[in-house]
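Hi F.,

I've been meaning to write this up properly since the lab meeting, where we talked about keeping a consistent format for the predictions we share between groups. The idea is simple: the sequence comes first, exactly as it goes in, then the structure tokens exactly as they come out, then a line or two of notes. No screenshots and no reformatting. I'm using this chain as the first example so we have something concrete to point to.
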Amino acid sequence: MRRIASRVSQLNGEGALEVFSRAKELERQGRSIIHLELGEPDFHPAAPVVDAVRNAVAAGRDRYVSSRGVPALREAVAEYLERTRRLEVAAEEVLIAPGCKMALSLAMMALIEPGDEVLYPDPGFPIYASFTRGLGATAVPLGLVEKNKFQPDLSEIAAKISPRTRLLIFNSPNNPTGTVFNEMALAQIAELARKHDLWIISDEIYARILFSGEYKSIRALPGMAERTVVVDGFSKSFAMTGWRLGYAVAPKRVVDAMDLLVLNTFTCAAEFTQVAAIEALRDTTNSVEAMVDEYRKRRDLFVAGLNRIPGFRCLVPDGAFYAWVNIEDTGMPAEEVAKLLLEEAGVAGIAGAAFGTQGKDYLRFSLVSARNLLEEALERMQRVSVRWRAAVTQ
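Output, unedited:
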């Protein structure tokens, strides 16, 4: 039998999609399901963005364009990052891709050699480790633990750097914990990167979904612009998930390498979505601020409710739109609790092991449903908690 390339066996899927599939199956059976498993906003793009894409298609903006992206969008991204993150970026340092995963994948393909070691957060976005292995490199986990409020342990990072370490990847705010890496952590990571000549991939897809303070990007620190790739996009902050549009900001030689990969794969991102994205970045209706304000209200309501459920413990996230819940006091495996919640309560969440070994005692819920549905989900979970309350009170 003809074989499949071995690299495919090194890849893994996403637990959220598996849970979503089962949840949809239950819905087809007539069950009421509250979907808190996917990281997909329940908002939609602002009206000016919808108008912009409609007008772009009507005007014939559906042609091949530059593989690096429409020049006007690249310039708009540079201006946007200066306005919202105080980053000095040139348009030639921006590359547009059909989604953040593609921008991330291009950066990893451009920087990682077989045999390299890549440091990544655990818990963290599962594609980091998966694609690292697919490229023939070794994925080395860095634990984000509750006793440290899920901040990185810099002594652990330093101890795990070897002569083969080439890249450190992280996202802040973190998926799934919602932790925003503090300035001290960023400064120490930057120091290690400079000392050991490491590349950094800073996944900043949730940078605008911040509940207090001003976002700090590691790229802004001394000596980091030349060794950092920032990955961001439009799915989360602008509720444009299905539009598949992301970007990378990197030194020009990295953008040149990524551009060659684009030419050998997808040619270019769709022109009309890029035109509309310029309007999204302008955000003339302040839709991002309104959306974050609503997420803040959902966070406050939902986290407080989770902490009233016997056996549940949830730190208040500083950003993104997830609740990361410690369930070890239930005395049950997280997978079993997640199954009970879905099958008996109709609440879809994800067992934390999908995000790494450090997540084995956790569940992740997305704050992507309206507040009345979050309240209903809490009531359902409270009712089902009778299944483990005896273990909690012993």
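Notes:
The chain has a mean pLDDT of 95.
Residues 330 and 392 are 6 Å apart (CA to CA).

If this format works for you, I'll send the rest the same way.

G.
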